[in-house]
Amino acid sequence: MIKMDKVKKTYGTGSVQVDALKNIDLEIKENEFVGLIGPSGSGKSTLMNIMGCLDVPSSGEYFFESERVATFNHNKLAEIRNKKIGFVFQNFNLLPYASAFENVEIPMIFMGMKARARKARTMELLERVGLKGRASHKPSELSGGEMQRVAIARSLANNPRLILADEPTGNLDTQSGDEILAIFQDLWKQGHTLVVITHNPNISARAQRVIRLIDGKVENNGA
Amino acid sequence: MKIMYLFRLFYRELKSQKKRITLTILALAWGTFSIVVLLAFGEGLKRQMIKAMHGLGDGICIVYSGQTSKPYRGLGKGRIITLNLEDVKLLESRVSGIELISPENDRYRNNMTYGRKSLSERVIGIYPDFEDLRGYHPERNSRFINDLDVKNKKRVVFLGTELKKRLFGDEEAVGKTVLINSVPFLVVGVMVEKMQNSMYNGPDVDKAAIPYPTFQAIYGDKYLHRLIYRPEEISQSETVKDEVYKVLSQKYKFDPTDKQALNIWDMVEEEKLMKNIFLGLEIFMGVIGGLTLIVAGVGVANIMYVSAKKRTKEIGIKMAIGAKKRHVLLQFISEALMISFIGGGAGVLFSFLIVEVFRVLPLEGEVADILAHPVISFQIMILTAVILSIIGFLAGIFPARKAASAKPVEALRYE
Fold first, then answer.
1. Residues of chain B with pLDDT under 50
2. Which residues pair with A220 in a beta bridge?
3. Number of Cβ atoms within 10 Å of the Cβ of A185
4. Each residue of B326-348: pLDDT tens digit?
5. What is the pLDDT of residues A18-56, one digit of tens each?
6. Do the chains contact at A97 and B12, CB–CB below 8 Å?
């Protein structure tokens, strides 16, 4: 699915350079459920941003489905994020003015899906995360767990093969966290590839493989 | 649905920046209002001026006597060339492009009497073609001087609107007899009111017209004061004028290129000149209006910059879920365009209102006749729409490009 070859990421310029990632070699296969753990500042989010084509490595090569991401232009990257990758964030990142329905619908608007198919798909996704009755609610009218489920529904909009989640349960209570975990396990069973950054031992325990990052290096790749 | 989505975004933005957007829309509305009203009054002024100019006659040429300025075939310069009635026939038969033609002579201070009222008025002697040449149109149930009147040297008179009012008041004039220098004349017609801003020897509404032969018999004039003709095709005016010079130069033996031998007042040329003056005026007013709109456009750009900054996070989220550059561009440009068109629309609406008010207001008097007839022409509408679109687009494109070039990771991190 994805492969990293001596990926380096350096922030800052001149004398105050910080190496966030140092020579990461990593491969994640189709339909793996990977937990990504490590202390804060170890480079987990930076790594995930590169995996999700939101950021580019300072050096090294990143292959997405065997293609060199460095060769992609803006549009191609946007397309990959739209169709092949689903993001779930710790702080949900929903659009505050849009309803649950509209939030889930937006990636399909970007893809150019026809209105009728889009509406049906949006309802189907909301049903799948148990929020069919909350479609017209704004994020401010939803609980944290519900917001995260909307975000998951949104990440699934175009049926991506890779789902990247950055501390998806970090802002949630235990029960909501467990519900999210259950959804993730379902997705895994359905054949999606999952990479989840987490401090939640419940998640890392269920993950098929746990990668531990310390100080920008893979300390244990769990393979 | 995509459109609805853009509208929704716009509506949300409207709510979150009410004051700023309202002010910008006001500025745009004001700018649009100024440009449209300015041009509408300019257009109205032009149309009224042209209409008033046609009060003298549309496309006519007035030929006066002149003085040669070049020696010709042994004859020295400075000879006075005067026309007589035979020249009317000559031109009629020799210049094929002439549609209407009439001589005109006049006299001041004629004693004109009806009943106990006695006035000192101006009398002109003319041919029937004069009606169409110079816009001496009769009121209903009355007529202008006709061929029979001319042929039989009848003592009939056609009265200008104001002259009739002075002499008859509200009384019916047609069929009555007036005395002109003690000679009785039958009133056959009264002129309808007309606007006139171009004239010689006073406004037409003050004159009394009688058949040319009658005039000649009374006053004994040998020469024409002037000769008026109209070409069949206004576009052929120049050719016909050259032909007139040629025919008359042969008869009176002057150089056909000597334009001072005969003075010709060409209304077609005059109108062209006036239209050019107005075009210049329109450009001037358009530029002023356009500058006002540009100021408003800067306001729109400002709004969009603030809006782009405020929405950095939102743009980051959208990029993370697959928005392409063009999606971001489209959002901002469409918003800027919507602001422009709402402001512009309000301005246009308000201008229509003002223009309508002026049309309904019962404004009278010479100044009001010329000034108070604003017209919003199709060209003005198109021009305004184009300027607003350009402003909206320019005000949108720069902030939009800035927003669209944001790096997804950095935009996402923005709080």
1. 1
2. A212
3. 15
4. 888 888 888 888 888 898 899 99
5. 889 999 999 999 999 999 999 988 999 999 999 999 999
6. yes
Q: Which of B29, B58, B69 is nearest to B274 (CA)?
A: B58
Name the closest residue on chain A to residue B9, using Cα atoms: A97
B-contacting residues of A 118-177, CB under 8 Å?
Answer: 118, 154-155, 157-158
Q: What crossing angle do the helices spanning B312-320 and B378-404 adopt, rounded to 10°?
A: 70
Beta bridge partners of B66: B81
- So where are chain B's domains? 2-54+271-413, 61-266
Count of alpha carbons within 13 angstroms of residue B324, beta-carbon side: 14
Which residues of chain B have a Cβ shorter than 8 Å from any chain A Cβ?
1-2, 5, 8-9, 12, 314, 317-325, 327, 407-409, 412
How far, CA to CA in Å, does A86 sit from each of A52, A80, A107, A161, A187?
8, 10, 10, 8, 12
Answering whether pTM is above 0.80, one says no
**Residue A121 DSSP SS3:** helix
Residues of A in contact with B409 (CB under 8 A): 49, 54-55
Q: What ipTM was reported for this prediction? A: 0.91
Task: Please answer yes or no on whether B409 and A55 come within 8 Å at the CB atom.
Answer: yes
pLDDT in tens, A128-147: 999 999 999 999 999 999 99
Domains, chain A, in order of start with CATH, read 29-57+73-220 (3.40.50.300)
Question: What average pLDDT does the structure give for chain A?
Answer: 91
